[in-house]
Amino acid sequence: MPEFVELHSPACTAIWECPDGEAPLWRYWGPRLPDGVLPPGALRDERPEPSFSLHFDQPLSVFPGGGMGWFGQSALLAHRGGADWTFQAGDCAIERIDDGVRFVLRDIVARVTVTVTARLDPASDVLTLATSLRNDGDGVLDVQWLAAACLPLPEDAARVRSYGGRHNSEFVVIDDKLTRSLWRRENRRGLTSHDCLPGAVVTCDDGTAHGAQLAWSGNHAQGIEWLDDGRRQWQLGEWLAPGEVRLAPGETLHSPEVLATVSAEGADGVAQAFHRAVRARMTWPGGAMKPRPVHLNTWEGFYFDHDEAALRELADAAAAIGIERFVLDDGWFKGRDDDTSSLGDWTVDTAKYPQGLGPLARHVTGLGMEFGLWVEPEMINRDSDLYRAHPDWVLAIDGRPLLEARNQLVLDLSNPAVGEYLFEAVAALLRELPISYLKWDHNRDLTHAGNRPRHRAQVLAAYALFDRIRAAYPDVEIEACAGGGGRIDAGIAARTHRFWTSDCIDAVSRVTMQRGFLQFLPPELMGSHVGASPAHSTGRGQAMAFRCGVALPGHFGVELDVRKLGADERAGLAAGIARYKALRGRLHAGRVWRGEAPDGLLWQAHGDGDGLLLLVTRAVPTTQRHQPHLRLPMLDPGRLYHVRIGDAAPFEAEGSWLARIGLPVPPLPGEAVLACDIQPAGT
Ligand code: GLA
């Protein structure tokens, strides 16, 4: 019998077969197998040699290397001046670590050591994988691709859901059928991107779902490839530009981590596992998340038009309706009257704020709200003192024109002088003002990232800057923003506390975006605001109750000039805020399920199998005379439930009825959210 390595969590199992002198072979990654269930024998014994095939059979391993009988995509593409381009481990050391295993694969011909680390966390059911590559040779090793993870997918893997988009339209669902053709998504924009989220969910014919996401805020690639045995391999990793990684002798390249999970309960099971894993990676001020405070963000209410007296009035109006955090967005710093200038000059505009920001900040904190400030440290405008002093600090390629986006260029963060300047600039603000929150933006893609490509270096330097600021000011929370949702990933989640999901606050548009967000990240990180009507990004108008209902499950905020609201709208907003405060404890703990009923009804449930908060959303008007029922598969069929739909009188219903036949939903107009409460009877 060959040696096997197995990892188990409550819902998942991973098994590798470890033949002597080679990389371990993937035997299983799927729903939990009973203890002690192992493959009946060696994999090669099940695979007679096909005609016209190599006598040496190379099945999918934990790190398939190219050139030596593996004809699929290689987990490593590297060479030394054109030589040493194949990879085949000659020995494998297996080291047990907490909840996991480390495979150390040595190739003495290519003179590299690859270490694959796999941890299966029993609390989240997430398998975290990472790879490192050490150059053991005496020449430079050029690396074009190092898979962070190489995962097996079963023969019945049928469909893959990934997400694309653009500014103002994040989380566009892309559903692809898996065929024998290679499926591949790549991002080369230098940050996570609006266009291509670094993860996906694969569903099998039997309903099992496999999910993976790369915890990385830069370029990335993932591919799913059909294999000769009918399985597929799924590789995820960092996309490297030519020449970007050239390892000196003895140097090691560390991949980002991949979070991967499997659920017999489909995509929601995957989402729930991801939420548990991401929650465990978060670092909150004080060690634990406090209830997510209601935000007021000044951007769409004021844009660059900062008038200190008006902003004080806004703060008064915000505090009066229950807002808890006031975030002063773009437009507060020297000369920043529009988006053509001043990025880089992180000192207050004394024309707008003659006494500095202190009086406004203290006015805000005096009202009992936290004060937050917008910054975009990685960026610079040509029209700035910083650019005039240090034009050489931008990412550039000699001889090539500087391409601008939103009139801005990108600072070379890997230049230590730039890192130092930015730390000091941000630290000075945090030192001098009562700031407890930063909204940290990044409003353009990277193009010419240096004469030698420095995309990777830029991400690592940005992470280092976040880490340094977090270490020096541990009480400050940070929001990750990049023109809305251009930098949403599990890598930056560990360094920040909120994402700005999209610059599009139109509540109808937000419905699908937010469902996409929740596939990978938990609701408490999802910035969701009530904007003006009509929405600035789409021109569509929506009722206050609908705007509040759509914003409800995330980290709730307001992004409009509260002063301008009529009495009814203001009361509606205050009621929405009060409801969010009453429910946030339930919305931001436990699990999330997302479902659809016929006729365009969408639902989302938050909580656990017992007590559920159910949000039923209708974005478009009904086409049916009578409403479809909503099946709630997560309810316990053996229990009786106490149900309250909206404000209607409560009733009791059997779990089995609600799971199989469904909840009767009253007629809803288009653009409505109905909140329902479902509790086990007698609790
Ligand atoms: C980006 C952000 C917005 C706002 C502006 C300010 O677009 O996504 O929320 O902060 O920048 O310029």
Main sheet: strands, sense, barrel: 10 strands, antiparallel
Radius of gyration: 26 Å
Overall structural domain count: 3
What would you call the shape? globular
Description:
- By secondary structure, the chain is α+β, with helices and mostly antiparallel strands.
- The protein folds into three domains: 3-41 and 58-281, alpha-galactosidase from lactobacil brevis (Beta-galactosidase, Chain A, domain 5), CATH 2.70.98.60; 285-586, Aldolase class I (TIM Barrel); 593-680, Golgi alpha-mannosidase II (Immunoglobulin-like), CATH 2.60.40.
- It is globular, with a radius of gyration of 26 Å.
- Helix 9 packs parallel to helix 10 and helix 10 packs parallel to helix 11.
- The strands form seven sheets. Strands 5, 6, 7, 8, 10, 11, 13, 14, 18 and 19 form a ten-stranded antiparallel sheet that branches. It has an eight-stranded parallel beta barrel with strand order 20-21-22-25-26-27-28-29, surrounded by five helices.
- It contains twelve helices and 37 strands.
- Strand 7 (112-121) and strand 8 form a beta hairpin.
- The structure holds alpha-D-galactopyranose.
- Residues 299, 329-330, 374, 441, 443, 481, 483-484, 500, 503 line the site of alpha-D-galactopyranose (GLA).
Question: What is the structure about, briefly put?
Answer:
The chain is 20% helix and 32% strand.
